[in-house]
């Protein structure tokens, strides 16, 4: 899987993310994207910043379901997929397993930023 960016590499060609980096980027975009951003796909996006910033245990279960459904609908190449979500008070830790590969993302509720953790299994 490849993801083309809107930037150039040192050879003035479109920058391309491959394999794991491409999947991390697509997952981060999908989780950060606010629903109703794209009129042609109004349900696309989890909207973690606005919807789960002040989450509790029950919200985390809904987040898990939302991420799973979004991946199934908008990133079907990652099926089969399992999602686990945890909260350490400051961060929401999201673990997405697809085809035996673990992608771990951390959403910091204070800074409202989502990042990937490199070196997943």
Structure description:
There is one protein chain. By secondary structure, the protein is an alpha+beta fold. The protein has a single domain (12-117), classed as Nuclear Transport Factor 2, Chain: A. Helix content is 31%, strand content 33%. The strands form 2 sheets. A 4-stranded antiparallel β-sheet has the order 3-4-5-6, covered by helices on one side. It has a two-stranded antiparallel ribbon with strand order 1-2. The mean pLDDT is 88.
What portion of residues is helical? Answer: 25-40%
Instruction: Compute the CA-based radius of gyration.
Output: 15 Å
Q: Count every beta strand, where a strand is a DSSP E run of 2 or more residues.
A: 6
Q: How many helices in DSSP terms?
A: 3
Quote the distance from N terminus to C terminus.
Answer: 18 Å
What is the strand content? 25-35%
- The topology string of helices and strands comes to EEHHHEEEE
- CATH class, anyone? Alpha Beta
Assigned CATH architecture? Roll
What is CATH's topology name? Answer: Nuclear Transport Factor 2, Chain: A
Largest sheet, described in full? 4 strands, antiparallel
The low-confidence parts are: none
Strand order of the largest sheet: 3-4-5-6
Q: What do the pLDDT scores average to?
A: 88
> What is the general shape?
globular
Structural class per helix/strand content?
Answer: alpha+beta
Counted up, domains total 1
Could you write a compact summary of the structure shown?
This protein has helices spanning 19-32, 48-52, 57-74; strands at 2-8, 14-18, 81-87, 91-98, 101-108, 113-117. With 121 residues, it is an alpha+beta fold.
């Amino acid at each position: 899987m490849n993801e083309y960016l809107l930037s150039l590499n040192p050879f003035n060609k479109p920058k391309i993310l491959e394999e794991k980096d491409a999947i991390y980027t697509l997952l981060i975009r999908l989780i950060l994207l606010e629903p109703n951003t794209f009129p042609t796909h109004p349900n696309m996006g989890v909207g973690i910043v606005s919807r789960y910033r002040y989450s509790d245990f029950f919200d985390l279960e809904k987040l898990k379901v939302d991420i799973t459904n979004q991946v199934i609908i908008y990133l079907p190449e990652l099926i089969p997929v399992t999602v686990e979500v945890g909260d350490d008070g400051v961060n929401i830790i999201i673990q997405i397993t697809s085809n035996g590969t673990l992608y771990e993302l951390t959403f910091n509720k204070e800074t409202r930023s989502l990042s990937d953790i490199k070196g997943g299994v």
